[in-house]
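Obj.: predict assembly geometry.
Materials: sequence records (below).
Method: joint structure prediction, all chains together.
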Amino acid sequence: MSDDPAIELAGSVRRLIDATIRTLADDATIRAVQSQIDSLTAQLTVETIPGAVGVHHVAGFSRVAGNVIIGERNAIAPPLTMHHRDDGGVATDFALGVAYEGPPGHVHGGVCAMILDHVLGAAVHQPGRPAVTGTLTLRYRRPTPLDAALRAEARIRETQGSKTFVEGFITHGGEVTVEADGIFLFPRR
Amino acid sequence: MSDDPAIELAGSVRRLIDATIRTLADDATIRAVQSQIDSLTAQLTVETIPGAVGVHHVAGFSRVAGNVIIGERNAIAPPLTMHHRDDGGVATDFALGVAYEGPPGHVHGGVCAMILDHVLGAAVHQPGRPAVTGTLTLRYRRPTPLDAALRAEARIRETQGSKTFVEGFITHGGEVTVEADGIFLFPRR
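Observations (raw structure tokens):
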């Protein structure tokens, strides 16, 4: 998977997303760039996976390559890299640029929710047996800054029958910005 | 704002994000496309806003042009368009493509959380006086499909002192996929 050149392409597209937001180029330059982007997209789409990567699996391709949080082909994804700790918990270190803005200069609260949903779920997933979110509660303690070193962690607190209770948080500089509690379920196959 | 050519550019970048995920082009084509994307990004970044759009305000530019949910310059944003109803509630109709994938073929639960955080907040915001999320609880009722007509709605249920209690949901085909309850606060200025 690591030699898939679309992973590097996604990195370039992330920089283009940022540039599109912040550019002060003149209108003619922006229009010319757009026209060339459209031509490049046409080159990429001569042959494509017919839909979502998770559904239309292609040999040699990660099933999560298109995932909005961890997908290496997905320029929307930061992408997060999850680390599974010896104690069963998970953690990930990341930073979010201006494309994740909500309140001026800060990460959108919804983006924090999105990331915590994924990180709490990752603490529950078992190989070949993904969990789904039942309930998720978020408590916002302080603003989460853009372009700053952030960390998200989660661990299982308790299991009761089909329900797994998970807790986690995002920190910046050792201070919690958002806390989360979730109940995750394993869908019947 | 509507004559900002970067808005159209962001639309093209959204199609490029999708193409980057789904392309089956050969490695040489993908590498050549990446090289050209990097050149186009360099053209856009000769002069830029020095940071987040909400902080470094530029005349003629919407302050929310870079917002991750509604920002028209932000290719990560669907972008949502909020409609304020006569009864004080808000609603938005949208669809999410493969770039928002979580479980195979379905919208990531975290993306639903992100959207509901924004839509519930939009029901509380007053002109020039944005609200921030205090607590948000999400209940996942059924999977949310990709590439399908979705609707999100929210309304204020009650106000108690500085706290505003809000409820909302996402529906597909008239059925609720995710419900949300939130407590929003107006930060002191």
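Conclusions so far: Chain A has a mean pLDDT of 94.
To do: check interface contacts against the pulldown list.
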